[in-house]
Amino acid sequence: MSPGRTTPLTPPLTPDEKLTTAQTILGHTFTHTDLLVEALQAAGNGYAVQLSTRTYTPQKNTRLALLGDGLLSSILREAWYATSQPLASWSRVAETVLANRHPKGLGCRGVKMGLGDCLFLNPGMWTYEVGMVATAVEALVGAVFLDVGGGGKGWEAVKVVVGQLGLLEHELLK
């Protein structure tokens, strides 16, 4: 898939279906739905998300993405360190896996797995960009960490999700 704008190939999901689909893709069932809604909120602050059970007005996902970005980087560094690869190889891993638009990077992998279809977009927006999906992947990682209470439990939960997303499959991490 080429970087840039993409259009969902299937009919739009309902808000409840977006949450269910995202949790299935991640392999994590959220206890705190508000974190999941915020992670998928690509629209700006103040846009309401109407679920069947209640309405959420989450912040945009950028704060969760910042947390998730740090966690992703640390998990990948831990996996890279265990391989005894030369120091220069870390840059190749980071430039590939943490890149928004690289075919093996966060955005493209998220699009391939269907996370783009789970985003809550601004009203009137019919498409998403690969960069928006990359931000959502980072935010979802941050949300999983907080959902289980952070700390060691959060770290372990995030490692499972990162594996589920295939982000540890880089040849230099084996």
Average residue pLDDT = 91
Strand arrangement across the biggest beta sheet: 1-4
Order of helices and strands: EHHEEHHHEHH
Runs in which pLDDT lies below 50 for 5 or more consecutive residues are none
Number of helices: 7
CATH architecture: Orthogonal Bundle
So what's the overall shape? globular
What does this structure look like?
With 174 residues, the chain is mostly helical. Helix content is 53%, strand content 5%. It contains seven helices and four strands, in the order βααββαααβαα. It has a two-stranded antiparallel ribbon. A two-stranded antiparallel ribbon has the order 2-3. The chain is globular. The model has no long low-confidence stretch (mean pLDDT 91).
Brief descriptors of the model:
single chain, 174 residues, 5% strand, two-stranded antiparallel ribbon, RNase_III_sf
Topology:
Layout: E1 5-6, H1 15-26, H2 33-39, E2 49-50, E3 55-56, H3 62-83, H4 87-97, H5 106-113, E4 128-129, H6 130-147, H7 151-164
Antiparallel strand pairs: 1-4, 2-3
Helix pairs in contact: 2-6, 3-6, 5-6, 6-7
Task: Describe, in short, the structure shown.
The chain has 174 residues and is mostly helical. Helices cover 53% and strands 5% of the residues.
